[in-house]
User: Fold ABC transporter family protein from Heliorestis convoluta.
Amino acid sequence: MAPIFRATQLSRLYQMGEVTVPALVDATFDIPSGELVVILGPSGSGKSTLLNVLGGLDQATSGHCYYRGKDLALFSEKELTLYRRDSVGFIFQFYNLLPALTVWENVEMGASLVKEPLPIDEVLERVGLAERAHHFPAQLSGGEQQRVAIARAAAKNPDVLLCDEPTGALDLVIGRKVLDFLQKINQEQGKTVFIITHNGAIAKMAHRVLVMGSGRIVENRVNAQPCAAEEVTW
Ligand SMILES: Nc1ncnc2c1ncn2[C@@H]1O[C@H](COP(=O)(O)OP(=O)(O)OP(=O)(O)O)[C@@H](O)[C@H]1O
Assistant:
């Protein structure tokens, strides 16, 4: 089967005056559709840069990134907007919820962008927040707020979920619940999920682990037996 993503010598350099910062250097890999991929690496190693290029938030300076065989670099502005809207969902460490909207309304914001969203009540049920639908973000714990952010991205029903440190601000018990939900979306709905983390323990639940160092992919390993999110511990 053709990969959902193919990167060939993908690089993103930032020019800072006379200094060139090589944020992403020569990344080359294939990701089959339906994988749960963990991106590991120290601070500054290029993890977010890679995720942003995959999600069409940033453009590579050289090399190619193909999504279902189509080169993102050749997308028009309109095609990129549609790609970001319909095909990918982003989840960040600091939830980015709108404080004046209820949980239900925050999730509805994601769903309203696309033609074929998932029913909001169903998504809230799945993240275990059906009872909190009419509460505001400030009335929720960090883990609950993160689950609202995931529900908002999932309600768009995208092919790909791109998660940048989704458990970075959470303790073990709550973090595991969030990971469990991401794993369910991957296993039950066949979505391709990328999770950036500093936490090596989370790599155990991945189908594939990309390890980054100084902008390069220093290891690309397949995990024959990913564990359940419930077994992850740190
Ligand atoms: N907009 C930018 N302008 C200049 N340099 C940047 C920019 N964004 C990232 N960089 C640099 O590129 C490198 C990779 O950054 P990136 O955020 O991708 O790393 P990361 O692995 O996600 O780090 P962290 O784990 O701390 O979030 C770093 O040296 C960073 O300073």
The beta strands are 5-16, 19-31, 36-40, 62-67, 70-71, 88-91, 160-164, 192-197, 208-213, 216-222. Residues 14, 16, 21, 23, 41, 43-49 surround adenosine-5'-triphosphate (CB under 6 Å).
